Structure prediction request, 825 residues.
Amino acid sequence: MKESREIIKKPMTERTEIERPYNIDIPAQPGGYGGYRELYAQEGMQLGDYWRAIRKRLWLVIGLTVLITTLTAIYMARRPNIYQATATVQVDLEQTNPDLVTSERRVSVTNPDPAYFNTQLQLLTSETLLRRAVKELNLDSNKDFQLAKAEESTSAWRSLLKTIGLASEVKKKEEKTLGDSGSSTAGEELAEAIRLAPFIEIIRKNLTVEPVRESRATVKDTRLINVSFRHSNSELAASVVNGIAEVFTKQNQEKRSGTSKKTSDFLDERIADLQSQIKSDEIKLAELKRSSGIINLDEQSTIVLQRLEGLNKQLLDSENSRKNAEAQFNAVRNSPDQLNSLAEAEVIRFTTERENDMRSLRTRVTEQVTQLRAEREKLLVEFQSTSAEVQEVDKKIETLNNGLKEIQDKNEKDLKEFRTRASQTILDNLRTKYVQSKGQEDKVRSAFNEQYNQAQSQNGAAINIRLLEQNLDANKGFLKDLNQQQSSNIIVSQGSDNNISIAEIAIPPEIPIAPRRLMTVFAALLLSTLFGAGLALFLEYLDDTIHSTEEVESLLQLPALAAIPTIDSMPKRRLLLVGNTGEEQEPKGNTELLINNDPRSSLAEAYRQLRTSILLSTAGHAPKSLLVTSSLPAEGKTTTAVNTAISLAQTGAKVLVIDADMRRPRLHSVFGISNAQGLSTILSSAMNEAEILATVQYEEDAKLHLLPSGPIPPNPAELIGSEQMTNFLKVMQDNFTHVVVDSPPIASFTDGVLIASMVDGVILVVHSGKSSRQVVRRARQFLQDVGAKVLGVVLNNVNLRSQNDYYYYQTYYQRDYYRHDDEGQ
Prediction:
């Protein structure tokens, strides 16, 4: 006993230094409750724990679910219906109608390029195409698009961009680009593009361009493109999609006929020049005939005139040839598209010729190889495969195959070289043709001038008339040829089919594709429920307090002796005695002595359950001395001690309640007795047993013997840890059946720990929803360090309305039981 007392008298700081961390399992002390470690210890939270945590905050989960779901439903109800219209565009390979092309102009323009289809996909969303669609459909004056533009400019995102300066920088950049434009035409086009940019952006946001793929066993590509547009107006959506498809096909047709248009423009210009020249020559001829008086020339013309006529005709032909060669050379040199087209045609022609040559060559080589192999088979009948005759045949076959391969390689190399230099070769050929035509013209002009000088001595007027007539005839013939070429070019350009067409137009849809109101509301309901449950679990994780007896037994490895309900959570009991009014009545008297005021309440039943647990807590006999303490103040230890003593006294036992809290005593105020003398008086003076017993007061109503704390001493811990306290408890145990001691909180003061080593059992009071797990675990550690026998834990102030179903049905059973009992009286 002396050694244990020395341990007790150690200062609090020294005892806390040897404390073990709370997360380390503490071995069961002798007389402890190690069995609870195996029965109730669980690793992590179980499914039932999750459900209890959610049910504890069920109204929070329901409130969040209802709030978020309602807001989502209101938001989805206010959103307009979105319709999607879809048109299908077919993109075929580029090709010319072969029936409309003459043999001189027949060129294959088939384009097997795999990137062609992807290029058309990109062109469908290009700004140029969308800008043209906006202008042709007058979308810039459409009310819906005007409203969408206004909303876009006043949106929160746009305002944020303006705040950080991004929107203003873009505007300045556009203005700078507009100011730097070189010509007025380019400036107008740029200004138009900037004005239509918001409408293009609106279309692009809601436009979807996807290739159509057939997906069955495998994914098969097609040449179809689905163009879809989403808008709240179904008719406008269909109109926009059809407009974009029509503009796309029209633009492709214009691009295909672009080269023919250039040729047609050139021919129109040459025809106009010739017509003007012919008209001028006819007027000059008429004036010359009128002024000279010559109506017709003599059929007998001189040799000089005949030669001059021939040279004049040659000069006209060479001059026209030079002009055509010059015009063709300049047109090709200044038009890369036309140059590429001519180069591609030459490549195709060259490839076709080489393929025909190779086809015939392969045929001849194959026939020769077949003959040699047949000859080899015949030789193998008479000779071995290693013989000179057979090897000579093999060598011939190998020579033929190698020669064919070399020719194929050479053709491929020639094709690559020809493809590389095709454009330059065409330019060189046209330039050479032009230079040769000019040289020929100069040569003929020189001869004509010489012959003309010889004919000057002859009839000048007749010569001039004949020359003018020849000039007119030549120009008229050349004009006829140009008109024929112009007609042929128009037929080819207009008669060729457009390789891009509209396969299916869009019709205004009747069923909206968005918003999916019901699905969104259901998703909001599910997500809000999960969020509420997660928030409840998170709050439960942050909650460090103890709420249930299961948590007590799992955390402290101690039995839960009883769960004391709160006064507010107790159901009002309807008095059903004979002659009563049947009105609900509240308990009367001191609220800390409810067991005496309402003995049939659930609160009184809980204390009776606690009494039973105490009486059965030790083997052989009930504990004589009992300490009721808590880890922190205001956890209900005094109320628990008093009502526990009353419940023990109801069995007929002689029970003494000692107020050992000499710091904040409350026993005298609960019973309204004097605190002039008490425990501090006994411990601070030498009193015999009779004098000690004379200090004890008796409460008639509660049938309890009471010993208040007495005057508050300056050193309560010294008095509690003295030898006098040990002797005093022995005297009280000899004279009373049960001694119930109320002590200060053990986590704050050492008084309770000192008393715990002197009594037969300790009851630890835990406030439900208030006591911290760490603090309660620390209090248990203090008691186990001094070897105190902890009988169990009392969970005080339990809210029956929020606890497990066990407490609810227990209360309901008691209330229903007493109701039937009252009815039977």
